[in-house]
Write a structure and sequence with these properties.
21% of the residues lie in helices and 22% in strands. It is of the alpha+beta class and 272 residues long. Strand 7 and strand 8 form a beta hairpin. The protein is built from 1 helix and 8 strands.
Length: 272
């Protein structure tokens, strides 16, 4: 009877280890692709879909305002008489609020210098659109709401008025904020505005035309001077105005897809 001699196959253990490594690498590659697709979908949703949603909703709001202005005042969604708690005092303006990463309010020294008149929207309900901004050079038509809260105003594709600033057509500074990227991005191209371009503000029964005078390409998020009653940068004191008047200020984040700095456009009320 022959002895049973075991046969040893050299290299089988090495092949098994190699196969295990290939399996791990393959699984890691699949996971990477899956995560990449998820991230891509999130980016598409944030950059493209939210833009479409917000821009469409903003245009619907513009049309609703225009319809309401042509009807009985009681049907106006911006009618101050319908606003609960409309007499509440506005909080201090915060130039940093359009950027979600910047916490804490920044108080502007001193209230707006204008005297409230028929155009004054101070009593309008916060977060509700009450006016329309038109910028012919950019083909922009966008609703204006009270306040600059991201979720309640800016993320809807609206332009928000800094609390405590002057109303449209008033003496002082009518200061506005808007997204430059995502959520309708109404202020994406305000860097293209030039001296002499018109900024038209419409409210019920009134139309105010401002003319772009100066721009500030970059300043800090806490440069509250740019939205003061007489707008003048406290970071770059040679930028801005020195005399009282009726001003409009547009602010947004810069550079694009960043909230590190602020881009500012100033205009003055055009005489009738």
């Amino acid at each position: 009877m022959r002895d049973h001699i075991p046969v040893v196959v050299q290299g089988s253990g090495r092949r098994a280890r190699r196969a295990g490594l290939v399996g791990v690498l393959w699984a890691a590659a699949e996971l990477t692709v899956t995560v990449g697709l998820v991230v891509l979908l999130l980016v598409v949703h944030q950059v493209w879909w939210t833009n479409r949603q917000a821009a469409a909703a903003a245009q619907d709001q513009v049309q609703a305002l225009e319809r309401a202005w042509g009807q009985d005042p009681a049907s106006d969604p911006s009618d101050p008489s319908e606003a609960p708690g409309a007499s509440a005092a506005p909080r201090a303006p915060d130039l940093s609020e359009p950027a979600a990463s910047v916490p804490g309010p920044v108080a502007v020294p001193g209230p707006a210098s204008g005297t409230a008149g028929p155009s004054r929207p101070a009593a309008a309900q916060r977060d509700r659109a009450y006016a329309v901004l038109r910028i012919p050079r950019l083909g922009l038509v966008v609703p204006i709401a009270q306040g600059i809260d991201k979720r309640a105003v800016l993320d809807k594709g609206y332009v928000g008025q800094y609390p405590g600033t002057a109303g449209p057509g008033e003496r002082g500074n009518f200061a506005l904020a808007g997204h430059r990227n995502t959520h309708g991005e109404p202020f994406r191209y305000i860097n293209r505005l030039r001296a002499g371009d018109e900024l038209i503000v419409e409210i019920r029964g009134s139309r105010f035309t401002y003319v772009v005078g100066r721009t500030l390409g970059e300043t800090t998020e806490r440069d509250t001077g740019v939205i003061a009653p007489v707008p003048r940068s406290v970071v770059k004191p040679d930028q801005g105005y020195a005399e009282p008047g009726s001003y409009i200020t547009l602010t947004t984040c810069t550079p694009e897809y960043s909230s590190k700095y602020r881009l500012v456009v100033w205009g003055t009320l055009k005489s009738a």
